Amino acid sequence: MSYLNFIDGTWREGVTMAPNISPSDLSDVIGEFARADAAQAEEAIGAAAAAQPGWASLPPGERFAVLDRAGDELQARADELGELLAREEGKTRTEGTAEVKRASQILKFQAGETLRNPGEVLPSVRPGVEVLVSREPVGVVSIITPWNFPIAIPAWKIAPALAYGNCVVFKPAELVPASAWHLVDILHRAGLPAGVLNLVMGRGRDIGDILVGDPRVDAVSFTGSVDTGHRVLATAQAHGARVQLEMGGKNPLVICDDADLDAAVAGAREGAFGSTGQRCTASSRLIVTAGVHDAFVDRLSKAVDQITVGHALDAETTMGPVVDESQLAQDLRYIELATQQGATLVGGDLVEGRTKGHYLSPALALDTRNTDTINREEVFGPVASVIRVDDLDEAIEVANDTEFGLTSGVYTSSLSTSTRFRQQSTAGMVMVNLPTAGVDFHVPFGGRRGSSYGPREQGRGARDFYTTTKTTYVAS
Q1: What distance in Å separates the CA atoms of residue 458 and residue 444, rounded to the nearest whole number?
Q2: How many CB atoms lie within 10 A of CB 459?
Q3: 444: nearest Cα among 462, 467, 422
Q4: In the sheet that 363-368 helps form, which strands lie side by side, from edge to edge?
Q5: Whole-angstrom Cα distance, residue 336 to residue 326?
Q6: So where's the catalytic machinery, residue-wise (predicted)?
Q7: Could you tell me if 166 and 142 are in contact, meaning their C-beta atoms sit under 8 angstroms apart?
Q8: CA dist., res. 443 & res. 339, Å (int)
C-alpha cells in the first residue's frame, strides 16, 4: 500500500517512494511511503503560514474538540497501532501499545491546555492605566522527530503546538513513517482545517534545510543527534526562529551500599534495556558503590541473561531488534571499543531469530572507567556499562562528569542520601528508586548542557516554547 504526504488538507504524491521495512523481519514491507522534495516542503510551509491566523482565532473550545477527538481514537486503536509501531520500529508489542496510549494521554492533556492558557491583569505604576499580559501563538512551527518513539514524540510536540494556535509542518524520521502517517490522518479526520497540520516525509538532506531555514518558519522543535541539533540551531537562528532541541544523554544510575538490590537490579535492567536501549533517557552508566558492586553485578548479569531477544510481535519476546543495520553496526563498534579499552563484556552477541532481522543480545560492559569512550558517547542501543566507585561522594562526581545532563537516578534507602543526590545532580530530571527512563506526560521534560536547548517539552512547560508573551497597556 502507498502512503502519501499531506499538504494543505490533501494527500499528495512525493517525488519518489521508499519502502518501510520491519527490523524484526526484513521481508516484511509495511508500505511504500512518499518522499517530499524541497518544493513540497516550501508548499507545506506556505500552507501553514496561510492557515495560521484562522486557526489561532478559533475559540479555544474548537481546538480542544479536535485534539480530544484525536486522543479518543488513538486510545480506541491502541492495540492495532501498537502492533504497527512494533512492526516498524522493533520495540515489543506491549511497549508499542503503551506508547500509543501515551500519545492519547498527551493529546487529551494538551486539549485541556487550550482552556488553561491564563494571562495576567496588573496595575500600572501610572494612574489610570491597566496592564494585560497574554500568551499568543508563535506562528508556523517545523517539527522534526526521531525514530525511537515514532508516535509519542510527534504527539508531545504537535499537540501543544496546535493547542496554542500554531500551525505545523511535520517531518518524521525516515525509518518510521507509518506511525507518523496515522497520527496525522487521525488529527486530520478529527477536524483540523486545511493547512493547519502538514506532513512531509523523506530524507533530512533533501528537505531539512528548508524546514529549518525558511524565513516563514517561526519556531523549530527537533529531537535527534547532537551534531544535527547543532546544525538545526545555527540554521534556524540565522533568520531569528526560536529553537527547541532534545539531543540525547549518557544517563547515570547510582546504586548505593544501602540500596534494595532486587529493586535496583530490576530498575537497572528496565532502564538500560527497555525499548532495546534505544531511548535518550536510558540508564547507560551504572555507577555502583564498592560495598554492593560485586553482588549487584552478579545479580544484574543473571537478570540480563533472562532477557528474551526476538521478533517484536512474539509473545515471549522481552526485547526486540535494533532498529536498522546502521544502528546495529554502531552498537557493535562501541562494544568492540569497550573491550579494547579493558572492559569485561557480558552479552553483546548477534542473535539468530526465527526471521532475518537486526538482533543483538543486551550487552553489559563491566570494569569500565568514566573516561572510557563507552561512558562518554551515547551508544543508543542495548548497551550499558558498570563503573565501580568508592562511596557516594565519588558516585555524584562521576555521575555529573558528562557533557550531557538529561536524567539521572539513585537507588538508596536513605532519605538524606536521596536528598543530597537530588540536590547535587546536574541533570534536568532526577529519579529516586526508579529507572532513569520513564516519564509522565503532564510535567516538563528536558535536560541541561549537551542534552537540551531551549524551553522544556511536555506538560504545562510546553507553553513556554509554543507561545509568545504580549503586554498590552490600556488607559481608562
Answers
A1: 5
A2: 20
A3: 462
A4: 344-347, 363-368, 383-389, 285-289, 252-255, 407-411, 429-432
A5: 16
A6: 246
A7: no
A8: 39
Return d(Cα 280, Cα 247) in angstroms, integer.
8
Cβ atoms 405, 427 nearer than 8 A: yes
Phi and psi at residue 132, to the nearest 5°: -115, 130
The grid coordinates of residue 322 equal 535494533
| Domains of the chain in sequence order | 2-248+442-475 (3.40.605.10), 252-432 (3.40.309.10)
Name the pairing type of β-strands 219-223 and 242-246: parallel
Residues 276/437, Cβ–Cβ less than 8 Å: no
Distance between CA atoms of 137 and 466, rounded to whole angstroms?
A: 6
Angle between helices 78-89 and 60-76 (to 10 degrees): 70
Alpha carbon of 184 to those of 16, 71, 76, 137, 196: distances in Å? 20, 12, 16, 20, 11
Query: Catalytic residue numbers?
Result: 246
Nearest CA to 435 out of 308, 265, 278 is that of 265
Cell numbers linked to 62: 474548537
pLDDT in tens, 52-99: 999 999 999 999 999 999 999 999 999 999 999 999 999 999 999 999
**What Cα–Cα distance (Å) separates residue 226 from each residue in 191, 324, 438?**
36, 20, 22
Q: Which residue has the cell 558503590?
A: 289
| Chain centroid, CA 60 distance in Å | 27
How confident is the model over 213-236, as pLDDT tens digits?
999 999 999 999 999 999 999 999
- DSSP H or E stretch at residue 76: helix 60-76
What is the residue type of 164? Y
Closest CA to 431 of 447, 449, 454: 447
